[in-house]
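Lab notebook, bench 4. We co-purified these components, and the gel suggests they stay together. Before we commit to crystallization screens, I want a quick structural picture of the whole thing.
Request: model the full complex, all chains together.
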Amino acid sequence: MRNNWIPSTPLEQMANTEYDVLIIGTGAGGGAVTWRICEQWGKNEKKVGVVESGDFLLPTQAANIPTMNSERMNKLHEYVSKPLGRFNPEFQGAKQVFAFGGRTLFWNAITPRLNQLEFRQWPVTVQEMEAYYTIAERIMNVSREYTKGSQMTEILLNRLQWKGITEAASAPIAAELGPGIYGQEGSDVFFGAIDFFANALNHRPFDLTVKTRAVQVLVESGEVVGVKVLSSEKKPYILKAKTVVLSASTFETPRLLLHSGIKGKAIGHYLMNHSFVLATGTMSREEFPEPLGTLSILIPSTSDRHYQIQLRGPNGYFWYQPYQTKPFLKELEINFVCSGEVDPRFENKVTLDPYKTDEFGVPEVQIHFSYSKKDQAIIREIAGAIEQISSFCGISMHSKPGQPSICLMPPGDQNHDSGTCRMGKDPSTSAVNKYGQIHGVKGLYVADNSVIPSIGSANLTLTTVALAIRTADYIIHQDQERAFT
Amino acid sequence: MITLTAFGDEISPDLEIQMDTLASEGIYYIDLRGVGGKNVLQLNDEVVAEVKKRLDARGFRISSIASPIGIIPITDDFTPQLNDMRRAIYLAKYFGTPYIRIRSFIIPQGEYPLKYRDEVLRRIKDLTHIAEHESVILLLENDTTMYGDTGERTLDILQSINSTNLRFAFDPVNFLRSSVLPMTHAYPLVEPYISYIHLKDAQIDTGKVVPPGKGDAEIVKLLTSLKEKRYSGFISIEPKGMPGIADRDFFLVAAKALKTLLNKMGLKWDKNNPDLDTYSKFSTSSAIKPKQASFPPACPQVISPETVDSWIPLTPLEKMAQTDYDVLVIGSGAGGGAALWRLCDQWRNKGKRVGMIEAGDLLLPTHVENLGLFSRERALQYISSITRPLGKRLPEFSGAKQVFGLGGRTIQWAAACPRIPSYLISQWPIPLKEMNIYYKIAEQVMNVNKTFSKSSLPTRIILNRLWANGFYKATSIPFAVDITPTKYGVIHSNAVFSSILFLAEALNYRPFDLAVNARAVQLLIEKGKTAGVKVVSPDLKSYWIKAKTIVLSASTFETPRLLLHSEISGPAIGHFLIDHSALAANPIINRKLLPEDLGRIGILIPNTKDNPYQIEFGMLEKPLQDELEMIFHGYGNVEPRFENMIFLDPYERDKYGVPKIQVHFNFSNRDRVVIQQLAAGMERVLTSLGIIDGQPKIYLRAPGDDNHESGTCRMGNDPYTSAVNKFGQIHGISGLYVADNSILPTLGANPTLTTVALAIRTADYIIHQNK
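Here is the predicted assembly.
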């Protein structure tokens, strides 16, 4: 009763359907694939199914909910997260959210593109990436308008640009800012994967089941035929499908593939995540006229600088509810959120734990991860850059006892884990081809952070969505081909 | 900090004389427009290298490349300018400045600038695109005869292109020359985009250039604003603004006048050779030096002891049973939410214990229409899934329905918020003046406004027709909808108001205890005083919650039910059930009779003494079709009568052992007359509109179907004809209040706004009693 806000289909019924496309996972990747397929296919006779292992949790991105402030949102996020890093000391910060909408329920909606230089090593061309970025940005309402008119952002941007850091700009954010339109498509500001599914439903129905755990991908003579799933009561079902899209996450997608006995030298390897450096500084309120507003500046990486720096603030008021009182503070707190590039390396990997299985009988994952010399040099460079930027902006950095002004978060803490099913031409160094299809298995695709071959230093969601839409287009194309032959 | 720079070519064509003059004034930056009478872009590499060498030798820097880009007629070929742009970028990087000055193309004399808008935007967009790619900043300067000559058109360019690589160079005299008062008319518009100032002054009537501050270009105002905004950047001395005409003496007069002004106003500027270090590093791809610091230490991991397990903090009933509440609110709909909000707002840090219990579960965290998740169709499915059709077992009140869940019916209401007309309130035990104050408070907290459909052309057409046909009180429907755009970090994700916003706002003021799935089954009264309430959870565990004051906001059905079951006697409790006689029609609008842009239509014809009914109609935006269905409702007055009542059913109980309710309800002769008047009124409205096809049938909705049922704990001075006194307190029982639709003595408009106003008033009374 409590969460029947989106139609779901009983598993018994889904087990009697043969799906044209079955999508595993409902985060950004799974959402984007479902939306694109439903939008392109419209109301035809095709069958589309979606499987989510978690439950319904929130009907929109958490900050859109009126009772949320950033503190309550963080606490709820912590409460619902599974602390994967607790059992993986080398990737201590890793956490997972199992719920309809995945991690986008709690994300901060920052959506930069990757630096074009990154694509030189990718099997996808720059032009194609640009085109799919444009599609992704449109559907996700990405703009740089969120901080418009906020003096905090305008003045610090001016200072940075005047010092020659012309690459600094207000951060692109997936948010709908217009006045709430009554009786239309809702007034939620921040985008989340749920919006993909809502939009998909406006085009055509699809079957959805939650609290359903995919435990094995079924492949017969090099072709995918379905997925074995368990209900929350551990009752097994076989869901038949001509095409399966895995969007289960950087951890869960390779876990499912490895447990299903699908061979691939690169599956699970090349795990990446940005190194994550935080810093806090302060500025006097007197530096800014009215309206102070909010601060979000993004300094992307360049050809000679391999990290991204975000300035956020003030204090906990990057976003807040209309009735919340933002106090007048003499000292404003400014947060540096910095991501450093990390090389894709074979030895950073996700493997199956030979000794431990979960309640569904699937082996738990083990994570091996370390920073290379180069990764570490970048981390040191970030620390240097923070000092330089703070002096350009007039931000004073001071550490309190037990609270260093610049510090490094444990590996895995940023939700930018990726690369474990990387895209590439060579099956010995990549898991999927340039369309996201697992090398050598017909009909089996991956569409989540795990396909990204190199992560630069930008937040990943927009890139994952762009690639997922592209994979969906390829699936639609392949399906047409099949109809002709 | 302000940095002064100057157009050296207005001093002398000779670079050495330029530098001598500037050094004598303590200025070490130059806007590079020309050397030796040649434009900067025409200098060859040898000359450029020579200039750079001479500048470096004396510690001079270039603040911008003053390019001639955009100073050609818009009708001329654009291609050569793209080559100019490449040269300008080369020079900018060579001299280490991010700034390239451009203008917005000359509009042929006598022609209307907007005719060339698209072409101007296309060209500047192309230039900006290159600038973005090359990491340089274009400074657009306003100028007379150009497209961007006024504040509005300049803003149009900056806003349409919207790039951090296109900024604005503010030139007050150029505005003046375009008959625009720079500070009065232009500055307020373009202020956010300003990154550079060109300073000269002139007289408005003669056009003669004069030293800064001596003319009409509002220079003092400009400097005052720059001081307020703590402007940091260049102010360029451009005494005449005429390239090729050098006048060293006038330059010196202008520079000294400006510096005197700056000093007088306490504006600091860097007198001596400023810190140029980082600035000159621009020519690399990033100005951030690849400097390595020490490896950062690990961040301390903060693990907070408290967790939050749902979107609103909940308190277990076990814990609530151990607390002695100052106030406990039963029910979380509009009345309960409003009372709780007011108590939390007024009490803040007063150490009072405030609690709320809700019989239903958490449903949606906001009004259904605020969620992009729901299409109209899915929203209706959802609403029907959470609505209990109570009327199924109430033959005389068959339309009745209930929603049990946090926020009650407000998570799906239509948000129409008219006030009850004063001729009806004058029969109430509350002075009209006081009611109006509480209406204002309620309207403010609920964001009630009429702007929502006001701008729509059809609304204006329809209102004109209605006024012409004698419905002179017709107006836009006031809706509780927040239509503010998201700005400055304040997110407006929850447009349509719901009681959950009351709870959210209350949480911001102070914590309160909230339990859901907590069914109040019995009130405990000791010696005429409120002592507590018995609450049962869905697994039938019962708890006693102690409270000195209880506010019942459980609904017109549930509040009297709880009172009667708790054996609280009062001759009026449960009686005087009222509801509007609700008529409706589904008129079809002929699409062809309306303009292309529909917007939103929402019209209200209020209830008056002569026409004791309200008519309300509207239309939502829909896909294109020839015929559009309108939502068309009429609400007639129903007399409050003792015999219309709810009472406990002696034969049927719910799973908590509480008797279910039964209803007696019928329309009086007077009610029937009103229904006929209403039907006639609705017909007249439909004819007046002039956009309706055919004669739509007007029908009577089932009693209770409109969610307006009220009156079963009506307010009054006489305990024989009322259940609560004028403050909402049950007659004769201290500490027991009602704050929901059931206290309304009459209807006359959609009841929610009035219930909220009264609930806030009751909360104020409780606060007063607690003092």
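Chain A is about 25% helix and 20% strand. Worth comparing against the SEC data before the next meeting. The CA atoms of residues 52 and 210 of chain A lie 5 Å apart.
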